[in-house]
């Protein structure tokens, strides 16, 4: 019934309904191609064409389906498949009915509502918004949040610092601040003044935690693809930031492989040294062991992510056992040997003695922090393989933040345990004990050891080799079983190296796929079911081996830390920037973030960069700025909806609104042109001149009017919007494209003049080409053209009309070129197809015979037409070339507010016209009075000129030849009612009201003579000018017929170099006041 489902129709939630959706022909199975629609008729009618008429041909019409509302409809219920991008790797894209299909009752041919990019292959550049399918039919390995993020981050954060430098950090910085004057330690003091050692760890954790929160917000604001930090930053801030940080981040990971492997090799060489097993010498042994290690790690990585994950699990187990071994060892009673080296079991007095800082050897809090902070990096290890995670949006926040918490607590716990059991200085001599019964007053820096019965006072005089300040192997001594610490050190270095070896190629591959750096496209290709970046692995291996051979990373290590910190800073800034822009598209599922906290994190990261190493920070900024400028100049053809675009939009709106609150001032006047070019490429000369006026400093609108029924022209309007704007951008024309569909050219232009612009950003000049064919055009066309000029005057637009002898419109040439290119491409495709058939060994005779019939043949043009077209193309592009030495002649006949003078002056400030001098022509009486007056005016306006000419014979009658030319021009459009009877004359006026009457010619005889005479003077004085500017005559509305006005404009500009008729709106655009 009307209120329910039809009988036999499955409900939308049923399996049958789901299956029917999958079988729907509107479902795009191949992602990039438009869907194939079968003809479906529920009424048994015939298929109709786009105009609703039956043509007997098969026509693709979108089928209607039974909706949830119980009736047949073209509308579709909401479905995630409608929101997928082209090339989605996680599902097929469906195409929803267009608004035109629904509105026009399905009579419009079905087209894809999303314009696919060529070459879409589901790479990160497609920025897909879709979910990762739960079923993994292709066998791709995907990781959950524990194995993919938590384990990797913990392994990367836990490094050799945990076993080698942590005790030294707390020995230098202490774990608290002790008030020696009162010798009191209370809970209040602990909470009021945190220990510097704790501050070191806490500050590191603050940086990583804030970054983790920002990353969580970004990665839950849509689907995350492969590329880690690069992907997050590029999709948030755009390709300029992403491309710059992506390259240095990938490089930092590659060099980090060398750093970790060298750390491992140094530990192995120390063991060899202890056992007198050095192969060559220490330096070369480090190189040999490092190279062998990185080859083995490369083998694990190339074997696949599954093997790499298993190796990481094994290393994690070893590392966890080593950490537990430290805690267990602190509780085992210390032997005499260990006591002599400074290790005693838990003792409150040792804990108190290690409370205050004791910086030595020129170390400060910041230098100690700089040494420790690299141990806290590694939080992006999970994000770097985001493309291999089952659900990055869920895994990254959970795994990363939990890893930061666990590792932070571990660092703090181990440090406090060591601070409570190991003194700062010890001799290592088992004989340095205090004899029983010996009365010795314990005071100074070794009080705790003294009270334990050991005399380490000699350490105050000379340096000792043991204690937390002197022995980097404290953890081995403290642990229950020393070799486990060595194994833990191996595990920490190798796991970090392995994580970096995987991260660098993954990030680099994502960067290369986006084709931001075209030279690196070679490394975008993946291999195998997991799309492994084998080429990236090889490159990373080469970089790592190169730095391993150097074997001295003391200089490069700070740079690596700064590269990582730069990534953290940009992730924080990305979160802040996206929040600040308040774009409706910023809807992160993770809510526990704050834009100001993210900004604080970004500033903190930048500060830490300088704390670690100021010159490395400056170098990092220099490299990033260089890459940013490079990408900005190259302008990669990508659009990811970045927050930079959102902020630019907000700024533009705010600036436009702020302009509305300020009245226009003559000093700030600048040309803002509405140019009637049609399609921008059709009249290049007109566009080029307009662009010279506006350049980067004014508004330029290229406008096109589609004349005809709206149903027929709307498709052309919509199709041309993006295409023409892209053409303008490609040609580096700072202009906008606007189009309207109307029943007449005049109506469309009127709509544009009234509605174009935004607040103060509104056109004030109308530019158009001269209607060269007015004598052969129909009356309506001439009336429409002249009507546009009348409308421009009515709306107080400045008006500019450009005339060139060869004409302006080159659309027919462009169309012919495009047709030839299309035919050439078809021929090329056919030849490729033929070659493919040959390679298959099949007969090609029938195929090659068809080539002559399939390839269309272009009709050759006559030599005369070719010459004319060549001249037209040459003239149409003349303003794209630098103008040679010459003049711009300005015939300033009437004061129109100064626009006739301002526009040519602007031209002389452009590079193309800088060699052109401006000559001023004015009408006046003989003598120097008029010339001096104009000279004074121009000097006050501060406008440079070459010469001033006063035309004193402008009122003379034109010669007979010129006048005859004008009479021949208007002859077809005259009534000649004076030689006819009154009745016949009235009938002629009634039938042809647009024609030129004898009375009209008599009334405007002087003005007509002026136009003809001006042309003579122009021929006489300005035939050699590069460009001529002439004041445009105005025809009184309703008094001067359209054809007479066109005759004025025609005779005035006939047989001249490029000429611009200009008429301002009679409001001042020049001033001599400061």
TrEMBL record:
Membrane topology designation: Multi-pass membrane protein
Domain SLC12A transporter C-terminal: 683-1074
Amino acid permease/ SLC12A domain: residues covered: 148-673
Location within or outside the cell: Cell membrane
Chain spans, region Disordered: 29-58, 106-129
Biased composition (Low complexity): 43-55
Pfam families, A to Z: AA_permease, AA_permease_N, SLC12
Keyword Transmembrane helix attached: yes
Main localization category: membrane
GO molecular function ontology, one term from the record: sodium:potassium:chloride symporter activity
Segments traversing the membrane: 149-171, 183-206, 213-233, 245-265, 286-305, 311-332, 365-387, 399-423, 537-557, 563-581, 593-616
Record's keyword terms, sorted: Cell membrane, Chloride, Coiled coil, Glycoprotein, Ion transport, Membrane, Phosphoprotein, Potassium, Potassium transport, Sodium, Sodium transport, Symport, Transmembrane, Transmembrane helix, Transport
GO CC terms, sorted: apical plasma membrane
GO BP: cell volume homeostasis; chloride ion homeostasis; potassium ion homeostasis; potassium ion import across plasma membrane; sodium ion homeostasis
Catalytic activity: K(+)(out) + 2 chloride(out) + Na(+)(out) = K(+)(in) + 2 chloride(in) + Na(+)(in)
Family annotation (NCBIfam families): 2a30
Annotated protein name in UniProt: Solute carrier family 12 member 1
Organism of derivation: Oncorhynchus mykiss (Rainbow trout)
Source lineage: Eukaryota, Metazoa, Chordata, Craniata, Vertebrata
């Amino acid at each position: 019934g009307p209120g329910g489902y039809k009988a036999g129709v499955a409900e939308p939630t049923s399996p049958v309904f789901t299956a029917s959706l999958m079988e729907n022909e509107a479902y795009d199975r191949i992602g990039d191609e438009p869907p194939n629609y079968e003809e479906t008729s529920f009424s048994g009618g015939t298929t109709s064409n786009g105009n609703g008429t039956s043509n007997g041909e098969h026509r693709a019409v979108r089928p209607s389906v039974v909706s949830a509302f119980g009736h047949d409809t073209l509308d579709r219920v909401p479905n995630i498949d409608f929101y997928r991008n082209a090339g989605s790797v996680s599902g097929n894209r469906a195409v929803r009915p267009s608004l035109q299909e629904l509105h026009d009752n399905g009579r419009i041919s079905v087209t894809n509502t999303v314009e696919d990019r060529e070459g879409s292959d589901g790479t990160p550049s497609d920025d897909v918004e879709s979910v990762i399918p739960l079923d993994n039919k292709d066998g791709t390995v995907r990781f959950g949040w524990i194995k993919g993020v938590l384990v990797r981050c913990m392994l990367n954060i836990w490094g050799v610092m945990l076993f080698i430098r942590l005790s030294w950090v707390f020995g230098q910085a202490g774990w608290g601040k002790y008030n020696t004057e009162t010798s009191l330690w209370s809970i209040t003091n602990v909470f009021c003044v945190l220990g510097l050692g704790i501050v070191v760890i806490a500050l590191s954790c603050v940086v990583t935690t804030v970054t983790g929160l920002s990353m969580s917000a970004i990665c839950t604001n849509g689907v995350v693809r492969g590329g880690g930090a690069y992907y997050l930053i590029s999709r948030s801030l755009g390709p300029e930031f992403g491309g710059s940080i992506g390259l240095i981040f990938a490089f930092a990971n590659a060099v980090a492989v060398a750093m970790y492997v060298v750390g491992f090799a140094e530990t192995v060489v120390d063991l060899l040294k202890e056992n007198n097993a050095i192969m060559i010498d220490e330096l070369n042994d480090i190189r040999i062991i490092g190279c062998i290690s990185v080859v083995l790690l490369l083998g694990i990585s190339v074997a696949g992510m599954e093997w790499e994950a298993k190796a990481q699990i094994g290393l994690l187990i070893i590392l966890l056992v080593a950490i537990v071994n430290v805690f267990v060892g602190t509780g085992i009673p210390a032997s005499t040997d260990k006591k002599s080296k400074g290790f005693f079991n838990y003792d409150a007095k040792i804990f108190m003695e290690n409370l205050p800082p004791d910086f030595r050897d020129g170390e400060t809090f910041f230098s100690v922090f700089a040494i420790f902070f690299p141990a806290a990096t590694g939080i992006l290890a999970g994000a770097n393989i985001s493309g291999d995670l089952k659900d990055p949006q869920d895994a990254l926040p959970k795994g990363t933040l939990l890893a930061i918490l666990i590792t932070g607590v571990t660092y703090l716990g181990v440090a406090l345990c060591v601070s409570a059991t190991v003194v700062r200085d010890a001799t290592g001599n088992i004989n340095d004990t205090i004899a029983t019964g010996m009365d010795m007053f314990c005071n100074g820096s070794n009080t705790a050891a003294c009270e334990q019965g050991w005399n380490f006072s000699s350490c105050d005089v000379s340096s000792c080799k043991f204690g937390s300040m002197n022995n980097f192997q404290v953890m081995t001594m403290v642990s229950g079983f020393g070799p486990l610490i060595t194994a833990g050190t191996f595990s920490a270095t190798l796991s970090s190296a392995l994580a970096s070896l995987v991260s660098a190629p993954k990030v680099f591959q994502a960067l290369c796929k986006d084709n931001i750096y075209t030279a690196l496209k070679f490394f975008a290709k993946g291999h195998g079911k997991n799309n492994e970046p084998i080429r990236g692995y090889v490159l990373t291996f080469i970089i790592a081996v190169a730095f391993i051979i150097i074997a001295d990373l003391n200089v490069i290590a700070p740079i690596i830390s700064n590269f990582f910190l730069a990534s953290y800073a940009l992730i924080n800034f990305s979160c802040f920037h996206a929040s600040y822009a308040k774009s409706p598209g910023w809807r992160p599922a993770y809510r526990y973030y704050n834009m100001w906290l993210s900004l604080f994190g970004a500033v903190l990261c930048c500060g830490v960069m300088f704390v670690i190493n100021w010159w490395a920070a400056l170098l990092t900024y220099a490299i990033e700025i260089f890459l940013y400028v490079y990408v900005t100049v190259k302008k990669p053809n990508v659009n990811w909806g970045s927050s930079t675009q959102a902020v630019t939009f907000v700024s533009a709106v705010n600036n436009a609104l702020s302009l509305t609150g300020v009245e226009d001032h003559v000093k700030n006047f600048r040309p803002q042109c509405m140019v009637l070019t049609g399609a921008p490429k059709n009249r290049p000369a007109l566009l080029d001149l307009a662009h010279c006026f506006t350049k980067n400093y004014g508004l330029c609108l290229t406008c096109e009017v589609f004349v005809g029924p709206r149903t027929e022209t709307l498709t052309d309007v919509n199709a041309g919007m993006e295409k023409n704007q892209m053409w303008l951008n490609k040609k580096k024309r700072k202009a906008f494209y606007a189009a309207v569909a109307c029943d007449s050219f005049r109506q469309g232009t009127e709509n544009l003049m009234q509605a174009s612009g935004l607040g103060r950003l509104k056109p004030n000049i109308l530019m158009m080409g001269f209607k060269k064919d007015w004598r052969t055009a129909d009356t309506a066309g001439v009336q429409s053209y002249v009507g546009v000029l009348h409308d421009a005057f009515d709306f107080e637009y400045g008006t500019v009309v450009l005339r060139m002898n060869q004409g302006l419109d080159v659309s027919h040439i462009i169309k012919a070129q495009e047709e030839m290119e299309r035919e050439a491409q078809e021929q090329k495709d056919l030849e490729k197809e033929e070659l493919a058939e040959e390679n298959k060994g099949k007969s090609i005779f029938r195929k090659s015979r068809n080539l002559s019939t399939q390839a269309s043949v272009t009709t050759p043009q006559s030599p005369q037409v070719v010459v004319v077209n060549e001249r037209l193309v040459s003239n149409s592009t003349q303003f794209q070339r630098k103008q040679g030495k010459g003049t711009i002649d300005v015939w300033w006949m009437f004061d129109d507010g100064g626009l006739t003078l301002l526009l040519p002056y602007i031209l002389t400030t452009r590079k193309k016209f800088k060699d052109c001098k401006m000559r001023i022509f004015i009408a006046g009486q003989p003598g120097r009075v008029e010339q001096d007056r104009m000279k004074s005016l121009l000097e006050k306006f501060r406008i440079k000129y070459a010469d001033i000419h006063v035309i004193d014979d402008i009122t003379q009658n034109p010669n007979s030849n010129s006048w005859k030319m004008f009479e021949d021009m208007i002859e077809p459009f005259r009534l000649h009612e004076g030689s006819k009877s009154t009745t016949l004359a009235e009938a002629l006026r009634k039938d042809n009201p647009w024609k030129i009457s004898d009375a009209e010619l008599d009334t405007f005889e002087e003005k007509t003579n002026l136009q003809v005479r001006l042309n003579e003077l122009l021929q006489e004085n300005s035939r050699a000018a590069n460009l001529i500017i002439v004041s445009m005559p105005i025809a009184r509305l309703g008094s001067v017929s359209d054809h007479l006005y066109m005759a004025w404009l025609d005779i005035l500009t006939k047989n001249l170099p490029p000429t611009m008729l200009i008429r301002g709106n009679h409001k001042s655009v020049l001033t001599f006041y400061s």
